[in-house]
């Protein structure tokens, strides 16, 4: 693997540390008794507790000043300045730890452990006075260093693809992004407390399933070699949780990793987390009340308030929420009444509204397209859309007052669905007929139609009590609570396209452009590590920078002319 000039230098520094008899990756515990946040928040109030502290962090900046230096260290809670004095960390005659290791062999990004005491500098900055220093980890790749000049920020690590692909770097240099994931954990904890306090039990169900049931979605398919059967990554856990209600549990819930073999966009990732809960002897009206209390509780736990900002919208999760039937919503925003309409009438109406539909779509899909295109985006504040047509809801009880509808709701926020709930269908004969309707859609070409799960039907035949179920997209909910329009921002490691590998160009490849060998490492230090990178540069600026680097590094190299430098870049084209 070809290494950049900086990576080569870091490996030389690593070897220099080893040659001094220091293990750059020690195995023994380094006891930490304080964090950066603890010091900055509490030192002024309680100075006596900070006389003997042990701290570990990553070097983020340094100011070397002869026999004393300042270094900025970052731990999981923030940054703090440390004051390193040669004679304090090197009490004897040997000053190599400071003069050689600290000043010459350590780099930005390395992790060190320090012991000492906290004090306030003459400029009023709370700092750690270092009395002992230990190398804990040598970093072999340089961090992207953000620079600021004249009020402008340069070289910020902001490219989304790089940030998502190298989340570990993003979390180091954009430490504020950690707060998104802290809030995500708070959301899970708050939801668990709410369910546990209500007496419901957290369970686990299979990820590998022989029938991908519980949702209308295209599954990922794999193969079990020992059993010689196809298996599917789950698209939902609904049918397994209902089996547990049949088995006698009154309330069960699960935070479920689901997988859907579909497209990716700002609100969809093929791997996502859903929470599903099922409670016996309840209906969808009870579940609406339960849901709005749950989300009010979660919003306060995450942000300290029921209000959240999402883009240009101020959203309030305080209960109660508005309730609108799907029929009324479509009628309000299109003037079209879907009640009693045939599949052909719905298709013609959709086409008349400029909505792209096709012959594989049944009534449910057509209604869903009309609602999605013409209505969904109008609901900004949390709103329950209720009473979906029966064709859209194959696992839902028929409406007690209108058999063409079902007892289902979706919760809409800022034009997006974040929750879906039913009065669950527990009539096994009706459920079998609904599954068979789904199979007919599959035969027409709908690759998202549900499979028939014979074992689930058998479970229903043993009797499932009246039940209401709720599913919440956890990734999408945390997007709203943290004001992030992209699902990739709230996932530590979102799915990415395969990385294009750009190899560092060799000295021979640079030399082929007419670049003298001695200038190649200089160009690499300036960031030109590949021939491709030369194509986007300004030759005049590079010429001036080369002169500056030659002077700064005191290089004994003949300075090329401006015409020669221009010729290098023309050759790179």
From TrEMBL:
EC number: 6.1.1.6
Record-annotated Aminoacyl-transfer RNA synthetases class-II family profile domain positions: 184-498
Superkingdom to which the source organism belongs: Bacteria
Alphabetically ordered keywords of this record: Aminoacyl-tRNA synthetase, ATP-binding, Cytoplasm, Ligase, Magnesium, Metal-binding, Nucleotide-binding, Protein biosynthesis
CDD domains membership: LysRS_core, LysRS_N
Main location: cytoplasm
Binding site for Mg(2+) 1: 410, 417
Localization: Cytoplasm
Key word Cell inner membrane present: no
Cofactor note: Binds 3 Mg(2+) ions per subunit.
Gene Ontology MF terms in the entry: ATP binding; lysine-tRNA ligase activity; magnesium ion binding; tRNA binding
Example GO BP: lysyl-tRNA aminoacylation
Cofactor(s) of this protein: Mg(2+)
InterPro entries cross-referenced by the UniProt entry: Aa-tRNA-synt_II, aa-tRNA-synth_II, aa-tRNA-synth_II/BPL/LPL, Lys-tRNA-ligase_II, Lys-tRNA-ligase_II_N, Lys-tRNA-synth_II_C, NA-bd_OB-fold, NA-bd_OB_tRNA
Family to which the UniProt record says this protein belongs: Belongs to the class-II aminoacyl-tRNA synthetase family.
Assembly notes: Homodimer.
Name of this protein: Lysine--tRNA ligase
Organism: Sphingobacterium corticibacter
Lineage: Bacteria, Pseudomonadati, Bacteroidota, Sphingobacteriia, Sphingobacteriales
Gene expressing this chain: lysS
